[in-house]
Amino acid sequence: MAQAGVQHSMTLRTDAWWVAPLVTFVMLSAFVVYTTWRIIENQYYLAEPYLSPLYSPLLLLDWWPLSPAILILWAPGGFRLTCYYYRKAYYRSFVLSPPACAVDRGKPGEYCGETRFPLILQNLHRYFFYAAGVVLVFLWYDAFKAFVFDEKFGVGVGSIVLLLNAALLTMYSLSCHSFRHMIGGKLNVFSKCPTRFMLWKAVSGFNEHHMFWAWFSLIVVSLTDLYVRLVASGAIQDVRFI
User: Fold this and answer.
1) 238 domain residue, yes or no
2) How many domains, the chain?
3) What is the pLDDT of residues 75-114, one digit of tens each?
4) Residue 119's domain spans which residues?
5) What single DSSP character describes residue 239?
C-alpha cells in the first residue's frame, strides 16, 4: 500500500509512460558504447574509397598518439549533446528530469532550468552547430569521393551508404533550432526581408521533424561506420554496381 501511495503521488497516468524514456535510454546508451569502442579500436576506418564518418576528416598527425577520431568527434558530439531535442531526450531518460509529461521527478528541490553550471553550458549549442557544419562539408567530400574507383566513376553499396549518411546529417543540421534562428529568428518584420522569410518558412518545416532527423541520422551514421569497418576488416566485400 505504501508503494502504491508513492506511485500515486508521482503521477495519475495509467498508460505505459515509461516506455519512451526507457527506449531512449537504451538507444542512446548503445550509441555511446559503440562509438566509444570504435574510437578506442582505432582501426578499420578506411576502405578505399570509403572513410568512416567517425574519422572524417582523417587527421593523422605525428604528435597525436591517440585515435584521430578524438580530434574530430568533439564537434558533432557537442552538437548533439547540446541539441534542443536531445536535451529533452536524455533529461527524461537519464536524469529523470522529468521522466515524462505529468510525471513528477520525485525529488525535492528548486528547478532552475539551464541558468546554472553545468547546464548553462548548453548555450554553446550554436557554436557547436558552426563546428559541426565544417565537419559536414568533409562528409560531403567523402560521399562524392566514394563514387571514384581507380580514378573512374563507380557505384558501390558503400557509395550509397556514405551519400545517405551525408544527406541525413544535412537534414538534421538544417532542421536545427539554431539554424532556424540564424535564418530568421532575429527579424522583427518579415515583410522587409521576403527572401529570408521564405527560407525561414522552409527551415521551420524541417524543424517540425527535427526529432525524426535526429534519430534517423544517428542510426545511419552508426551503420555507415559499421559498414566501412566490415569492409575494411575483410568481413564482407563491397558490392559494386558500376
Assistant:
1) no
2) 1
3) 999 999 999 899 989 988 998 888 888 887 655 556 666 7
4) 2-232
5) P
Q: Write the secondary structure of 136-203 as one string of H (helix), E (strand) and C (coil).
A: HHHHHHHHHHCCEECCEECCEHHHHHHHHHHHHHHHHHHCCHHHHHHHHHCCCCHHHCHHHHHHHHHH
- Could you tell me if residue 9 is left (phi over 0), alpha (psi between -120 and 50 degrees) or otherwise beta? alpha
19-41 vs 70-81: helix axis angle to the nearest 10?
170
Peptide bond into 49 cis (omega under 30): yes
The total of other beta-carbon atoms located within 10 Å of residue 135's CB is 19
Q: Which residues, including other chains, have CB under 8 Å from residue 157's CB and lie 6 or more apart?
A: 227, 238, 239, 241
- Can you give the pLDDT at residue 106? 58
What is the number of helices (H) and of strands (E) in the chain?
A: 9, 4
Q: How far is 135 from 73, CA to CA, in rounded Å?
A: 9
Distance CA 203, CA 197 (A): 10
Structural contact between residues 57 and 136, judged by C-beta atoms closer than 8 angstroms: no
Task: Read off the pLDDT band of 192 (50, 70, 90).
Answer: confident
Q: Is residue 242 part of a domain?
A: no
- Tell me if 135 sits within 8 A of 147, measured CB to CB: no
Can you list the alpha helix ranges (DSSP code H) found in 11-69? 19-41
Q: Is residue 237 part of a domain?
A: no
Count CA within 13 A, CB hemisphere, residue 157.
12
What does the pLDDT read at residue 168?
98
Rounded to 5 degrees, what are φ and ψ at 224? Answer: -65, -45
Section 188-197 average pLDDT:
84
Domain-embedded: residue 241: no
